[in-house]
Amino acid sequence: MIIQPVDYFLVAWFTIALMSTAYVAWDQFRNNPEPPVMKWGFALMTLYMGPLGLLLYVLADKEPRPGTHEEFTAALWKQGVGSTIHCVAGDATGIILAAVVTATLGLPMWIDLIVEYVAGFAFGLLIFQSLFMKASMGGSYGQNVRRTVLPEFISMNAMMAGMAPIMSFLMMGRDMRAMVPTELLFWGVMSLGVIVGFAVAYPFNVWMVTRRLKHGLMTERRGGHAAHQAPSDQHGRQHQMESDATAAQRMAVAFVTTLMLLTGLILPGFYVNLSLSAADVGGSIMPPGMIMRFDTPAATMREMSAIHPRHVAYRAPSDARGDQPLMPRIENGVKVFDLEAAVMRWNILDDVYVDAYAFNRQIPGPRLQLMLGDRVRITVRNSLPESTTVHWHGLVVPNEMDGPAMITQPPIPPGGTYVYEYTVEQAGTFFYHTHDHADRQQAFGLYGALLIAARGGDEPRADLDYTIQLQEWLKREWLTYPAMLMEGGLPNFFTINGKAYPSTDTVRMRVGQTIKLRFIGTNNNFIHPMHVHGGPFEVVARDGATLPKSARYLADTINVGPGQRYDVIWTARRPGKWIVHCHIPHHTTNNNVETKGGGGLTMVLDVR
Description:
By secondary structure, the protein is α+β, with helices and mostly antiparallel strands. It has 13 helices and 25 strands.
Protein backbone atom coordinates (compact mmCIF):
# COMPACT_ATOMS: atom_id res chain seq x y z
CA MET A 1 0.00 0.00 0.00
CA ILE A 2 1.45 3.37 -1.02
CA ILE A 3 1.16 5.69 1.97
CA GLN A 4 4.50 7.57 1.89
CA PRO A 5 6.46 9.24 -0.94
CA VAL A 6 9.25 6.67 -0.60
CA ASP A 7 6.79 3.95 -1.61
CA TYR A 8 6.66 5.28 -5.17
CA PHE A 9 10.44 5.06 -5.39
CA LEU A 10 10.39 1.51 -4.04
CA VAL A 11 7.79 0.39 -6.56
CA ALA A 12 9.92 1.82 -9.38
CA TRP A 13 13.13 0.39 -7.90
CA PHE A 14 11.83 -3.16 -7.59
CA THR A 15 10.17 -3.04 -11.00
CA ILE A 16 13.56 -2.18 -12.50
CA ALA A 17 15.23 -4.78 -10.26
CA LEU A 18 12.95 -7.55 -11.52
CA MET A 19 13.48 -6.52 -15.14
CA SER A 20 17.25 -6.34 -14.59
CA THR A 21 17.27 -9.74 -12.90
CA ALA A 22 15.29 -11.31 -15.73
CA TYR A 23 17.79 -9.99 -18.27
CA VAL A 24 20.88 -11.07 -16.29
CA ALA A 25 19.47 -14.56 -15.69
CA TRP A 26 18.50 -14.95 -19.34
CA ASP A 27 21.87 -13.74 -20.62
CA GLN A 28 23.89 -15.69 -18.07
CA PHE A 29 22.29 -19.05 -18.70
CA ARG A 30 22.03 -18.55 -22.47
CA ASN A 31 25.21 -16.76 -23.43
CA ASN A 32 27.80 -16.20 -20.71
CA PRO A 33 30.54 -18.86 -20.38
CA GLU A 34 31.07 -19.27 -16.63
CA PRO A 35 30.27 -21.80 -13.89
CA PRO A 36 26.64 -22.12 -12.75
CA VAL A 37 27.46 -20.81 -9.27
CA MET A 38 28.45 -17.45 -10.76
CA LYS A 39 25.37 -17.40 -12.98
CA TRP A 40 23.19 -17.80 -9.89
CA GLY A 41 25.34 -15.35 -7.97
CA PHE A 42 24.92 -12.53 -10.48
CA ALA A 43 21.20 -13.22 -10.84
CA LEU A 44 20.68 -13.09 -7.08
CA MET A 45 22.81 -9.98 -6.66
CA THR A 46 20.88 -8.20 -9.40
CA LEU A 47 17.67 -9.11 -7.60
CA TYR A 48 19.08 -7.64 -4.39
CA MET A 49 20.92 -4.65 -5.91
CA GLY A 50 18.63 -3.82 -8.83
CA PRO A 51 20.17 -1.82 -11.67
CA LEU A 52 23.49 -1.67 -9.80
CA GLY A 53 23.73 -5.44 -10.11
CA LEU A 54 22.97 -5.17 -13.81
CA LEU A 55 25.68 -2.52 -14.16
CA LEU A 56 28.28 -4.72 -12.45
CA TYR A 57 27.35 -7.66 -14.64
CA VAL A 58 27.62 -5.71 -17.89
CA LEU A 59 30.86 -3.91 -16.96
CA ALA A 60 32.69 -6.76 -15.27
CA ASP A 61 31.36 -10.13 -16.46
CA LYS A 62 29.17 -10.13 -19.57
CA GLU A 63 31.22 -11.50 -22.46
CA PRO A 64 31.35 -8.66 -25.03
CA ARG A 65 32.22 -10.93 -27.99
CA PRO A 66 32.30 -14.72 -28.29
CA GLY A 67 35.52 -16.27 -27.04
CA THR A 68 36.74 -13.18 -25.13
CA HIS A 69 35.44 -13.89 -21.62
CA GLU A 70 38.86 -14.90 -20.25
CA GLU A 71 40.54 -11.76 -21.50
CA PHE A 72 37.60 -9.47 -20.62
CA THR A 73 37.40 -10.59 -17.00
CA ALA A 74 41.15 -10.74 -16.29
CA ALA A 75 41.45 -7.28 -14.71
CA LEU A 76 41.92 -7.38 -10.95
CA TRP A 77 38.97 -5.04 -10.23
CA LYS A 78 36.70 -7.39 -12.16
CA GLN A 79 38.09 -10.41 -10.36
CA GLY A 80 37.27 -8.56 -7.12
CA VAL A 81 33.73 -7.98 -8.32
CA GLY A 82 33.33 -11.67 -9.06
CA SER A 83 34.72 -12.69 -5.69
CA THR A 84 32.46 -10.24 -3.86
CA ILE A 85 29.40 -11.21 -5.89
CA HIS A 86 30.01 -14.84 -5.07
CA CYS A 87 30.40 -14.09 -1.38
CA VAL A 88 27.59 -11.59 -0.98
CA ALA A 89 25.06 -13.61 -2.99
CA GLY A 90 25.32 -16.48 -0.55
CA ASP A 91 25.66 -14.39 2.59
CA ALA A 92 22.85 -12.00 1.67
CA THR A 93 20.49 -14.86 0.90
CA GLY A 94 21.08 -16.32 4.35
CA ILE A 95 20.75 -12.91 6.01
CA ILE A 96 17.48 -12.06 4.25
CA LEU A 97 15.92 -15.45 4.97
CA ALA A 98 16.91 -15.11 8.63
CA ALA A 99 15.49 -11.56 8.79
CA VAL A 100 12.13 -12.78 7.50
CA VAL A 101 12.02 -15.60 10.04
CA THR A 102 13.09 -13.51 13.05
CA ALA A 103 10.65 -10.71 12.17
CA THR A 104 7.83 -13.21 11.78
CA LEU A 105 8.69 -14.77 15.15
CA GLY A 106 8.80 -11.33 16.78
CA LEU A 107 12.40 -11.57 18.02
CA PRO A 108 14.18 -8.41 19.23
CA MET A 109 16.42 -6.59 16.78
CA TRP A 110 19.66 -7.48 18.58
CA ILE A 111 18.83 -11.19 18.37
CA ASP A 112 17.79 -10.66 14.76
CA LEU A 113 21.26 -9.30 13.91
CA ILE A 114 23.02 -12.24 15.54
CA VAL A 115 20.81 -14.80 13.84
CA GLU A 116 21.30 -13.02 10.50
CA TYR A 117 25.08 -13.16 10.88
CA VAL A 118 25.08 -16.86 11.75
CA ALA A 119 22.65 -17.70 8.93
CA GLY A 120 24.54 -15.60 6.39
CA PHE A 121 27.90 -17.10 7.34
CA ALA A 122 26.55 -20.65 7.34
CA PHE A 123 24.73 -20.27 4.01
CA GLY A 124 27.72 -18.62 2.36
CA LEU A 125 30.29 -21.11 3.68
CA LEU A 126 28.40 -24.38 3.60
CA ILE A 127 26.38 -23.88 0.43
CA PHE A 128 27.70 -21.18 -1.89
CA GLN A 129 31.40 -21.73 -1.16
CA SER A 130 31.94 -25.34 -0.16
CA LEU A 131 29.06 -27.03 -1.99
CA PHE A 132 28.46 -25.02 -5.14
CA MET A 133 32.21 -24.51 -5.74
CA LYS A 134 33.16 -28.13 -5.09
CA ALA A 135 33.35 -29.08 -8.76
CA SER A 136 35.57 -26.10 -9.54
CA MET A 137 37.91 -26.38 -6.55
CA GLY A 138 38.17 -30.16 -6.38
CA GLY A 139 38.64 -32.13 -3.20
CA SER A 140 36.02 -33.30 -0.72
CA TYR A 141 33.26 -31.19 0.77
CA GLY A 142 35.01 -31.20 4.15
CA GLN A 143 38.28 -30.07 2.58
CA ASN A 144 36.49 -27.21 0.86
CA VAL A 145 34.88 -26.13 4.14
CA ARG A 146 38.30 -25.98 5.82
CA ARG A 147 39.89 -24.14 2.90
CA THR A 148 37.19 -21.48 2.62
CA VAL A 149 36.31 -20.83 6.26
CA LEU A 150 38.82 -17.97 6.72
CA PRO A 151 38.06 -16.16 3.43
CA GLU A 152 34.35 -16.50 4.13
CA PHE A 153 34.85 -15.22 7.68
CA ILE A 154 36.70 -12.13 6.44
CA SER A 155 34.24 -11.40 3.67
CA MET A 156 31.16 -12.00 5.83
CA ASN A 157 32.51 -9.78 8.61
CA ALA A 158 33.09 -6.92 6.18
CA MET A 159 29.71 -7.32 4.52
CA MET A 160 27.78 -7.50 7.81
CA ALA A 161 29.77 -4.52 9.14
CA GLY A 162 28.21 -2.47 6.34
CA MET A 163 24.79 -4.08 6.33
CA ALA A 164 24.04 -4.17 10.08
CA PRO A 165 23.99 -0.38 10.71
CA ILE A 166 21.77 0.14 7.67
CA MET A 167 19.25 -2.35 8.98
CA SER A 168 19.47 -1.11 12.57
CA PHE A 169 19.06 2.60 11.84
CA LEU A 170 16.42 2.23 9.13
CA MET A 171 14.38 -0.58 10.63
CA MET A 172 14.35 1.14 14.01
CA GLY A 173 14.01 4.57 12.42
CA ARG A 174 10.95 6.73 11.85
CA ASP A 175 9.12 4.37 9.49
CA MET A 176 8.99 0.99 11.20
CA ARG A 177 7.21 -0.69 8.37
CA ALA A 178 10.83 -1.53 7.54
CA MET A 179 10.63 -4.27 10.19
CA VAL A 180 7.63 -6.01 8.62
CA PRO A 181 8.40 -8.52 5.82
CA THR A 182 5.00 -7.96 4.20
CA GLU A 183 5.85 -4.29 3.63
CA LEU A 184 7.79 -3.15 0.56
CA LEU A 185 9.95 -0.92 2.75
CA PHE A 186 11.40 -4.02 4.48
CA TRP A 187 12.74 -5.21 1.14
CA GLY A 188 13.97 -1.72 0.29
CA VAL A 189 16.06 -1.68 3.46
CA MET A 190 17.38 -5.14 2.66
CA SER A 191 18.34 -4.00 -0.83
CA LEU A 192 20.16 -0.94 0.47
CA GLY A 193 21.87 -3.03 3.13
CA VAL A 194 23.17 -5.48 0.50
CA ILE A 195 24.47 -2.60 -1.63
CA VAL A 196 26.38 -1.09 1.30
CA GLY A 197 27.58 -4.52 2.42
CA PHE A 198 28.90 -5.21 -1.07
CA ALA A 199 30.79 -1.90 -1.11
CA VAL A 200 32.41 -2.60 2.28
CA ALA A 201 33.33 -6.20 1.40
CA TYR A 202 34.73 -5.40 -2.05
CA PRO A 203 38.25 -4.15 -1.12
CA PHE A 204 38.80 -7.15 1.16
CA ASN A 205 37.78 -9.49 -1.66
CA VAL A 206 40.18 -7.74 -4.04
CA TRP A 207 42.97 -8.34 -1.53
CA MET A 208 42.02 -12.01 -1.11
CA VAL A 209 41.96 -12.53 -4.90
CA THR A 210 45.38 -10.88 -5.12
CA ARG A 211 46.72 -13.14 -2.37
CA ARG A 212 45.01 -16.19 -3.92
CA LEU A 213 42.79 -16.79 -0.90
CA LYS A 214 39.66 -16.65 -3.08
CA HIS A 215 38.65 -17.23 -6.67
CA GLY A 216 37.50 -14.39 -8.85
CA LEU A 217 35.58 -14.76 -12.08
CA MET A 218 35.98 -17.96 -14.11
CA THR A 219 35.27 -19.12 -17.61
CA GLU A 220 33.66 -22.46 -18.34
CA ARG A 221 33.48 -23.54 -22.00
CA ARG A 222 31.36 -26.28 -23.47
CA GLY A 223 33.05 -29.62 -23.28
CA GLY A 224 34.17 -29.03 -19.73
CA HIS A 225 37.09 -26.66 -20.37
CA ALA A 226 37.26 -24.08 -17.64
CA ALA A 227 39.66 -21.28 -16.98
CA HIS A 228 40.22 -19.43 -13.75
CA GLN A 229 40.88 -15.80 -14.35
CA ALA A 230 43.83 -15.31 -12.03
CA PRO A 231 46.60 -13.90 -14.29
CA SER A 232 49.04 -16.75 -13.59
CA ASP A 233 46.75 -19.51 -14.81
CA GLN A 234 44.33 -17.88 -17.24
CA HIS A 235 43.93 -20.99 -19.40
CA GLY A 236 44.49 -23.82 -16.94
CA ARG A 237 41.90 -26.14 -15.52
CA GLN A 238 43.32 -26.47 -12.02
CA HIS A 239 41.49 -24.25 -9.55
CA GLN A 240 43.36 -25.28 -6.40
CA MET A 241 45.21 -22.23 -5.11
CA GLU A 242 48.20 -21.86 -2.84
CA SER A 243 47.98 -18.48 -1.16
CA ASP A 244 51.08 -16.37 -0.57
CA ALA A 245 49.40 -14.40 2.26
CA THR A 246 51.38 -14.72 5.48
CA ALA A 247 49.76 -15.84 8.73
CA ALA A 248 50.25 -12.34 10.14
CA GLN A 249 48.46 -10.80 7.16
CA ARG A 250 45.55 -13.20 7.44
CA MET A 251 45.21 -12.60 11.18
CA ALA A 252 45.44 -8.82 10.76
CA VAL A 253 42.71 -8.71 8.10
CA ALA A 254 40.51 -11.07 10.10
CA PHE A 255 41.02 -8.96 13.24
CA VAL A 256 40.20 -5.67 11.50
CA THR A 257 37.05 -7.03 9.85
CA THR A 258 35.96 -8.47 13.21
CA LEU A 259 36.36 -5.02 14.80
CA MET A 260 34.36 -3.55 11.93
CA LEU A 261 31.66 -6.15 12.47
CA LEU A 262 31.45 -5.50 16.22
CA THR A 263 31.26 -1.76 15.59
CA GLY A 264 28.48 -2.23 13.06
CA LEU A 265 26.53 -4.43 15.46
CA ILE A 266 27.06 -2.50 18.70
CA LEU A 267 27.25 1.18 17.71
CA PRO A 268 23.59 1.48 16.57
CA GLY A 269 22.56 0.31 20.04
CA PHE A 270 23.67 3.69 21.44
CA TYR A 271 21.15 5.47 19.20
CA VAL A 272 18.18 3.15 18.58
CA ASN A 273 16.34 0.64 20.74
CA LEU A 274 17.58 -2.74 19.53
CA SER A 275 15.55 -4.55 22.19
CA LEU A 276 12.35 -3.99 20.19
CA SER A 277 10.85 -6.27 17.58
CA ALA A 278 8.43 -6.01 14.69
CA ALA A 279 5.72 -7.34 17.02
CA ASP A 280 6.42 -4.54 19.51
CA VAL A 281 6.09 -1.62 17.09
CA GLY A 282 3.69 -3.12 14.57
CA GLY A 283 4.86 -1.17 11.53
CA SER A 284 4.36 2.19 13.27
CA ILE A 285 5.37 5.40 11.48
CA MET A 286 6.72 8.16 13.71
CA PRO A 287 6.21 11.89 13.00
CA PRO A 288 9.07 13.71 11.26
CA GLY A 289 11.34 15.27 13.85
CA MET A 290 10.47 12.95 16.71
CA ILE A 291 13.59 12.20 18.76
CA MET A 292 14.00 8.49 19.42
CA ARG A 293 16.87 7.04 21.42
CA PHE A 294 18.04 3.65 22.66
CA ASP A 295 15.70 3.90 25.65
CA THR A 296 12.54 4.96 23.77
CA PRO A 297 9.96 2.27 24.62
CA ALA A 298 7.70 0.62 22.10
CA ALA A 299 4.61 2.06 23.79
CA THR A 300 5.87 5.59 23.10
CA MET A 301 6.37 4.77 19.45
CA ARG A 302 2.90 3.29 19.12
CA GLU A 303 1.28 6.27 20.86
CA MET A 304 3.08 8.78 18.61
CA SER A 305 2.55 6.86 15.40
CA ALA A 306 0.36 7.89 12.50
CA ILE A 307 -3.01 6.38 11.72
CA HIS A 308 -2.37 3.74 9.08
CA PRO A 309 -4.61 4.46 6.06
CA ARG A 310 -5.59 0.80 5.85
CA HIS A 311 -7.60 1.31 9.06
CA VAL A 312 -9.78 4.02 7.52
CA ALA A 313 -13.30 2.60 7.40
CA TYR A 314 -15.19 5.64 6.13
CA ARG A 315 -14.46 8.74 4.03
CA ALA A 316 -16.72 11.64 4.89
CA PRO A 317 -17.84 14.08 2.18
CA SER A 318 -15.60 17.15 2.10
CA ASP A 319 -18.49 19.38 3.24
CA ALA A 320 -19.59 17.14 6.14
CA ARG A 321 -20.03 18.92 9.48
CA GLY A 322 -19.53 17.66 13.00
CA ASP A 323 -21.33 18.44 16.27
CA GLN A 324 -24.67 17.33 14.84
CA PRO A 325 -27.38 16.77 17.50
CA LEU A 326 -28.01 13.10 18.22
CA MET A 327 -31.62 12.31 18.91
CA PRO A 328 -32.15 9.69 21.63
CA ARG A 329 -34.70 6.94 21.71
CA ILE A 330 -36.76 6.55 24.87
CA GLU A 331 -36.83 3.18 26.64
CA ASN A 332 -38.87 3.05 29.87
CA GLY A 333 -38.24 6.74 30.46
CA VAL A 334 -34.47 6.44 29.83
CA LYS A 335 -32.84 8.47 27.05
CA VAL A 336 -30.73 6.00 25.07
CA PHE A 337 -27.85 7.05 22.79
CA ASP A 338 -25.56 4.90 20.63
CA LEU A 339 -21.98 5.97 19.96
CA GLU A 340 -19.48 4.19 17.75
CA ALA A 341 -15.78 5.03 17.71
CA ALA A 342 -14.15 4.27 14.35
CA VAL A 343 -11.39 5.39 11.98
CA MET A 344 -12.38 7.79 9.23
CA ARG A 345 -11.03 10.36 6.79
CA TRP A 346 -12.23 13.91 7.45
CA ASN A 347 -11.67 17.16 5.55
CA ILE A 348 -10.57 20.05 7.74
CA LEU A 349 -10.27 22.18 4.59
CA ASP A 350 -11.67 21.64 1.11
CA ASP A 351 -8.28 20.32 -0.04
CA VAL A 352 -6.81 19.04 3.23
CA TYR A 353 -7.97 15.88 4.99
CA VAL A 354 -6.89 14.13 8.15
CA ASP A 355 -7.24 10.52 9.14
CA ALA A 356 -9.03 10.54 12.45
CA TYR A 357 -10.77 8.65 15.22
CA ALA A 358 -14.38 9.79 15.42
CA PHE A 359 -17.68 9.14 17.13
CA ASN A 360 -20.50 8.39 14.69
CA ARG A 361 -18.51 9.47 11.62
CA GLN A 362 -18.20 13.12 12.54
CA ILE A 363 -15.72 15.50 14.16
CA PRO A 364 -16.55 16.69 16.74
CA GLY A 365 -18.72 13.73 17.73
CA PRO A 366 -22.49 14.16 17.87
CA ARG A 367 -23.88 16.70 20.32
CA LEU A 368 -25.72 15.14 23.25
CA GLN A 369 -28.44 17.48 24.49
CA LEU A 370 -29.94 16.62 27.88
CA MET A 371 -32.04 18.13 30.63
CA LEU A 372 -31.16 18.30 34.30
CA GLY A 373 -32.53 15.15 35.96
CA ASP A 374 -32.54 12.98 32.83
CA ARG A 375 -31.69 9.31 33.13
CA VAL A 376 -29.41 8.41 30.23
CA ARG A 377 -27.96 5.20 28.85
CA ILE A 378 -25.13 5.45 26.32
CA THR A 379 -23.91 2.34 24.52
CA VAL A 380 -20.39 2.77 23.14
CA ARG A 381 -19.16 0.40 20.46
CA ASN A 382 -15.44 0.31 19.71
CA SER A 383 -14.53 -0.14 16.03
CA LEU A 384 -11.01 1.22 16.49
CA PRO A 385 -7.86 -0.90 16.09
CA GLU A 386 -7.13 -0.27 19.80
CA SER A 387 -9.03 -0.16 23.08
CA THR A 388 -10.92 2.93 24.22
CA THR A 389 -13.32 4.34 26.86
CA VAL A 390 -15.48 7.45 27.29
CA HIS A 391 -15.28 10.02 30.11
CA TRP A 392 -18.07 12.52 30.83
CA HIS A 393 -15.97 15.56 31.56
CA GLY A 394 -17.09 17.49 34.65
CA LEU A 395 -20.14 15.36 35.43
CA VAL A 396 -20.86 13.75 38.77
CA VAL A 397 -21.58 10.11 37.88
CA PRO A 398 -21.19 6.70 39.56
CA ASN A 399 -17.52 5.78 39.71
CA GLU A 400 -17.85 2.81 37.38
CA MET A 401 -19.39 5.15 34.77
CA ASP A 402 -16.55 7.71 34.89
CA GLY A 403 -14.42 6.20 32.11
CA PRO A 404 -10.69 6.07 33.08
CA ALA A 405 -9.36 2.86 31.55
CA MET A 406 -8.09 0.20 33.98
CA ILE A 407 -9.00 2.43 36.94
CA THR A 408 -12.78 2.55 36.96
CA GLN A 409 -13.49 0.15 34.10
CA PRO A 410 -11.77 -2.32 31.80
CA PRO A 411 -10.90 -0.75 28.43
CA ILE A 412 -13.38 -1.46 25.65
CA PRO A 413 -11.50 -3.83 23.31
CA PRO A 414 -11.71 -3.55 19.52
CA GLY A 415 -15.12 -4.90 18.55
CA GLY A 416 -16.42 -4.60 22.11
CA THR A 417 -19.11 -2.47 23.74
CA TYR A 418 -19.67 -0.81 27.10
CA VAL A 419 -22.87 0.68 28.50
CA TYR A 420 -22.74 3.89 30.52
CA GLU A 421 -25.84 4.78 32.53
CA TYR A 422 -26.36 7.59 35.01
CA THR A 423 -28.71 10.37 36.10
CA VAL A 424 -27.78 13.92 35.09
CA GLU A 425 -27.29 16.04 38.20
CA GLN A 426 -25.82 19.25 36.69
CA ALA A 427 -26.70 21.76 34.02
CA GLY A 428 -24.34 23.67 31.76
CA THR A 429 -21.68 23.18 29.09
CA PHE A 430 -19.79 19.88 29.32
CA PHE A 431 -18.18 17.47 26.89
CA TYR A 432 -17.26 13.84 26.54
CA HIS A 433 -13.97 12.36 25.33
CA THR A 434 -11.86 9.22 25.36
CA HIS A 435 -9.98 8.33 28.54
CA ASP A 436 -7.86 5.47 27.17
CA HIS A 437 -4.72 6.47 25.25
CA ALA A 438 -6.21 9.96 25.61
CA ASP A 439 -3.04 11.73 24.46
CA ARG A 440 -3.44 9.92 21.16
CA GLN A 441 -7.16 9.33 20.76
CA GLN A 442 -8.46 12.74 21.81
CA ALA A 443 -5.90 14.35 19.52
CA PHE A 444 -7.36 12.24 16.70
CA GLY A 445 -10.92 13.51 17.30
CA LEU A 446 -12.64 11.42 19.98
CA TYR A 447 -14.65 14.14 21.72
CA GLY A 448 -18.04 15.82 21.53
CA ALA A 449 -20.22 18.42 23.24
CA LEU A 450 -22.53 17.50 26.11
CA LEU A 451 -25.01 20.34 26.70
CA ILE A 452 -27.34 20.08 29.66
CA ALA A 453 -30.24 22.53 30.03
CA ALA A 454 -31.65 23.57 33.40
CA ARG A 455 -35.36 23.02 33.88
CA GLY A 456 -37.39 26.18 33.92
CA GLY A 457 -34.86 28.12 31.87
CA ASP A 458 -32.78 29.13 34.91
CA GLU A 459 -29.66 30.06 32.92
CA PRO A 460 -28.37 33.04 30.93
CA ARG A 461 -29.97 33.11 27.52
CA ALA A 462 -29.18 34.71 24.16
CA ASP A 463 -30.87 34.97 20.78
CA LEU A 464 -28.43 32.48 19.25
CA ASP A 465 -26.41 29.65 20.71
CA TYR A 466 -23.16 28.38 19.19
CA THR A 467 -20.66 25.84 20.51
CA ILE A 468 -16.94 26.20 19.72
CA GLN A 469 -14.83 23.06 20.19
CA LEU A 470 -11.09 23.57 19.69
CA GLN A 471 -8.61 21.09 18.27
CA GLU A 472 -5.00 20.79 17.09
CA TRP A 473 -3.78 18.50 14.28
CA LEU A 474 -0.48 17.26 12.91
CA LYS A 475 -0.49 16.33 9.21
CA ARG A 476 2.83 15.59 7.47
CA GLU A 477 3.70 13.70 4.30
CA TRP A 478 0.14 12.45 3.74
CA LEU A 479 -0.19 10.98 7.26
CA THR A 480 -1.94 12.19 10.41
CA TYR A 481 -0.11 12.01 13.73
CA PRO A 482 -1.40 12.84 17.22
CA ALA A 483 -0.49 16.47 17.96
CA MET A 484 1.52 16.61 21.18
CA LEU A 485 3.76 19.06 22.98
CA MET A 486 6.94 17.09 22.34
CA GLU A 487 9.68 16.77 19.75
CA GLY A 488 8.15 16.16 16.35
CA GLY A 489 4.59 16.33 17.66
CA LEU A 490 3.75 20.03 17.38
CA PRO A 491 0.55 20.71 15.42
CA ASN A 492 0.44 22.50 12.08
CA PHE A 493 -3.35 22.73 11.67
CA PHE A 494 -6.03 23.99 14.09
CA THR A 495 -9.79 23.59 13.91
CA ILE A 496 -13.06 24.91 15.28
CA ASN A 497 -15.68 22.17 15.25
CA GLY A 498 -13.53 20.05 12.97
CA LYS A 499 -12.88 22.73 10.34
CA ALA A 500 -10.07 25.22 9.75
CA TYR A 501 -10.77 28.71 8.40
CA PRO A 502 -11.97 29.48 5.73
CA SER A 503 -13.97 26.24 6.02
CA THR A 504 -15.28 27.15 9.49
CA ASP A 505 -18.88 28.23 9.97
CA THR A 506 -20.10 31.77 9.39
CA VAL A 507 -22.85 32.70 11.85
CA ARG A 508 -25.31 35.29 10.49
CA MET A 509 -26.80 37.82 12.92
CA ARG A 510 -28.66 41.12 12.96
CA VAL A 511 -27.62 44.26 14.79
CA GLY A 512 -28.88 44.10 18.37
CA GLN A 513 -28.99 40.31 18.55
CA THR A 514 -27.02 38.38 21.16
CA ILE A 515 -25.19 35.08 20.83
CA LYS A 516 -24.02 32.67 23.50
CA LEU A 517 -20.62 31.31 22.52
CA ARG A 518 -19.77 28.11 24.37
CA PHE A 519 -15.97 27.69 24.26
CA ILE A 520 -14.87 24.11 24.99
CA GLY A 521 -11.22 23.12 25.36
CA THR A 522 -11.50 19.77 23.60
CA ASN A 523 -7.90 20.18 22.48
CA ASN A 524 -4.97 18.52 24.25
CA ASN A 525 -2.09 20.97 24.27
CA PHE A 526 -2.33 24.75 24.17
CA ILE A 527 -4.16 27.41 26.12
CA HIS A 528 -5.98 29.33 23.40
CA PRO A 529 -6.74 33.03 24.12
CA MET A 530 -10.02 33.28 22.23
CA HIS A 531 -10.84 36.84 21.17
CA VAL A 532 -14.00 38.31 19.63
CA HIS A 533 -13.87 41.48 17.52
CA GLY A 534 -16.59 44.11 17.61
CA GLY A 535 -16.76 44.76 21.34
CA PRO A 536 -16.56 42.91 24.65
CA PHE A 537 -18.62 39.96 25.73
CA GLU A 538 -19.98 39.00 29.14
CA VAL A 539 -18.58 35.86 30.79
CA VAL A 540 -21.63 34.11 32.28
CA ALA A 541 -20.48 30.55 33.01
CA ARG A 542 -17.25 28.66 33.65
CA ASP A 543 -16.64 24.88 33.59
CA GLY A 544 -20.36 24.14 33.41
CA ALA A 545 -21.34 26.35 36.36
CA THR A 546 -23.37 29.52 35.81
CA LEU A 547 -21.74 32.50 37.49
CA PRO A 548 -23.83 34.60 39.88
CA LYS A 549 -24.72 37.94 38.34
CA SER A 550 -22.34 39.67 40.73
CA ALA A 551 -19.45 37.49 39.49
CA ARG A 552 -20.04 37.99 35.77
CA TYR A 553 -17.64 40.29 34.00
CA LEU A 554 -16.84 41.88 30.64
CA ALA A 555 -13.86 40.80 28.53
CA ASP A 556 -12.86 40.54 24.91
CA THR A 557 -10.42 37.62 25.32
CA ILE A 558 -10.78 34.45 27.35
CA ASN A 559 -8.00 31.90 27.89
CA VAL A 560 -9.44 28.47 27.09
CA GLY A 561 -7.19 25.69 28.37
CA PRO A 562 -7.57 21.99 27.64
CA GLY A 563 -10.68 20.74 29.45
CA GLN A 564 -12.00 24.20 30.29
CA ARG A 565 -15.36 25.64 29.24
CA TYR A 566 -16.55 29.24 29.15
CA ASP A 567 -19.99 30.53 28.18
CA VAL A 568 -19.93 34.15 27.00
CA ILE A 569 -22.67 36.37 25.61
CA TRP A 570 -21.72 38.79 22.85
CA THR A 571 -23.93 41.55 21.46
CA ALA A 572 -23.87 42.47 17.77
CA ARG A 573 -23.41 46.23 18.07
CA ARG A 574 -22.59 47.19 14.49
CA PRO A 575 -22.88 45.58 11.07
CA GLY A 576 -19.92 43.88 9.47
CA LYS A 577 -17.86 40.72 9.57
CA TRP A 578 -16.55 40.30 13.10
CA ILE A 579 -14.13 37.46 13.67
CA VAL A 580 -13.73 35.04 16.55
CA HIS A 581 -10.17 33.79 16.71
CA CYS A 582 -7.27 32.58 18.81
CA HIS A 583 -4.88 35.41 19.62
CA ILE A 584 -1.80 33.26 19.04
CA PRO A 585 -1.20 34.17 15.38
CA HIS A 586 0.36 30.83 14.49
CA HIS A 587 -2.90 29.16 15.49
CA THR A 588 -4.75 31.19 12.85
CA THR A 589 -2.73 29.72 9.98
CA ASN A 590 -3.00 26.53 8.00
CA ASN A 591 0.35 24.76 7.94
CA ASN A 592 1.93 28.17 8.71
CA VAL A 593 0.10 29.91 5.83
CA GLU A 594 -2.80 32.37 5.98
CA THR A 595 -5.68 31.64 3.61
CA LYS A 596 -8.08 34.45 2.69
CA GLY A 597 -6.81 36.52 5.59
CA GLY A 598 -6.58 33.85 8.23
CA GLY A 599 -6.72 30.16 8.98
CA GLY A 600 -7.05 27.64 11.75
CA LEU A 601 -8.92 28.92 14.81
CA THR A 602 -10.88 31.65 13.05
CA MET A 603 -14.59 32.02 12.31
CA VAL A 604 -16.87 34.89 11.31
CA LEU A 605 -19.91 36.51 12.92
CA ASP A 606 -21.59 38.21 9.95
CA VAL A 607 -23.79 40.99 11.29
CA ARG A 608 -26.35 42.67 9.00
